[in-house]
# Entry
Amino acid sequence: MAPQRDQKLVVETISIGSLRFDPQNPRQHSARQIGQIARSIESFGFNVPVLVDRDNKVLAGHGRVQALQRLGRSEAPVIRLEHLTPARGPT
# Structure
């Protein structure tokens, strides 16, 4: 599939329960880091949406989702990257 250079990014709000964590995610966040992210969200708001694929698998933003869960939130802002294949996923 050829890249879509003019693709517009759309921020959606979806249920955290519908998100699937990637078990192959190389970044692991400690409880301390999750707490720091949660405090940042409380202070400054949620400013960087989570990146997900067409099946709601988290591509980037695992720590942010865990912080939202810690804060008792039920929804997360996401950007859906449907044009990526496993070989061309985010870096």
Notes: The chain has a mean pLDDT of 87. The chain is about 25% helix and 20% strand.
